[in-house]
């Protein structure tokens, strides 16, 4: 299956990172892959372009040891290879693969794909970057594309993180799966195959781990500081569970766990994924982690 034109819908951190990673991959540059980044307003597109520019500038600074001319040429060459559009339908009509990276909301994703299904060529593959929603549920919005509908779950920050979870439903064709795995390989990333199960691989293991850390502290068994130190020095993790939760976003963590607790296949009503009281309390207070300046830790303190 040939993929030569890729559109990414959603110009936030994830969408911009995916577009950058495809446009900058030497193997895909050699194949002359066309990349389009789409969002609903020019302001959002401009922000996506800014995200890519800043990321490329950091890479160029290291790559060219501060050589301004070479750095600028590097950044400009990749940015200029990405098309930026506000018309998702028009972009879809010229795409072999459409990757969705919008808000983590089932209704919003279904509406987007329902609209794109009427505009995209019959051969086009649809993929969602969701981290927690069932791919099969999102795919229900399409009429005759479920054998070409998969999950492509990238990790933040996309340009640096090597892993991509390739999520296959029961209906996904082998040809499409092979094509997506080759694309991921050409991006210089590692694709792992996973069935359409809640949380896929990483989040299915990671989120319950973070929740149990919170419950451990709620029971008074240890402090959050000691839990983080223990997991970094004892298990070799780069961040402890409380540092990680603050990095991910406490609202995001709560959203995932509430969805699993209420409707996750095999997880409904289980304590394993029940949102802990202290997590719910912090989110209710607007303490969402690093992005709000406070979460389990206070990031406003000097």
Core attributes:
302 residues, N-(1-d-carboxylethyl)-l-norvaline Dehydrogenase, domain 2, alpha/beta, 13 helices, 3-hydroxyacyl-CoA dehydrogenase, fatty acid metabolism, Rossmann fold, single chain
Reconstruct the topology from this structure:
Blueprint: E1 5-9, H1 13-24, H2 26-30, E2 34-38, H3 42-63, H4 68-79, E3 82-85, H5 88-92, E4 97-100, H6 106-117, E5 125-128, H7 135-139, E6 149-154, E7 163-168, H8 174-186, E8 190-195, H9 202-218, H10 224-234, H11 241-248, H12 250-263, H13 277-284
Parallel strand pairs: 1-2, 1-4, 2-3, 4-5, 5-6, 7-8
Antiparallel strand pairs: 6-7
Helix pairs in contact: 1-3, 3-4, 9-11
Word description of this protein:
This protein is α/β, with parallel strands linked by helices and 302 residues long. The protein is 48% helix and 13% strand. Helix 8 links the parallel strand 7 and strand 8. Helix 9 crosses helix 11. The mean pLDDT is 96.
Structural class: alpha/beta
Q: From N to C, what is the helix and strand string?
A: EHHEHHEHEHEHEEHEHHHHH
CATH topology heading of the largest domain: Rossmann fold
- Report the biggest beta sheet as strand number plus sense, adding barrel if it closes: 8 strands, mixed
Query: Helical percent range?
Result: 40-55%
Identify the CATH architecture of the largest domain: 3-Layer(aba) Sandwich
Q: Determine the CATH superfamily of the largest domain.
A: NAD(P)-binding Rossmann-like Domain
Extended strand count = 8
* Low-pLDDT runs: none
* Helical stretch tally: 13
Q: How large a portion of the residues is in β-strands, by DSSP E?
A: 5-15%
Q: Count up the domains.
A: 2
Envelope shape: globular
Strand order of the largest sheet: 3-2-1-4-5-6-7-8
Radius of gyration: 20 Å
CATH class of the largest domain: Alpha Beta
Keywords: Fatty acid metabolism, Lipid metabolism, Mitochondrion, NAD, Oxidoreductase
InterPro entries: 3-OHacyl-CoA_DH, 3-OHacyl-CoA_DH_CS, 3-OHacyl-CoA_DH_NAD-bd, 3HC_DH_C, 6-PGluconate_DH-like_C_sf, 6PGD_dom2, Mito_3-hydroxyacyl-CoA_DH, NAD(P)-bd_dom_sf
Organism: Rhizoclosmatium globosum
Catalytic activity: a (3S)-3-hydroxyacyl-CoA + NAD(+) = a 3-oxoacyl-CoA + NADH + H(+)
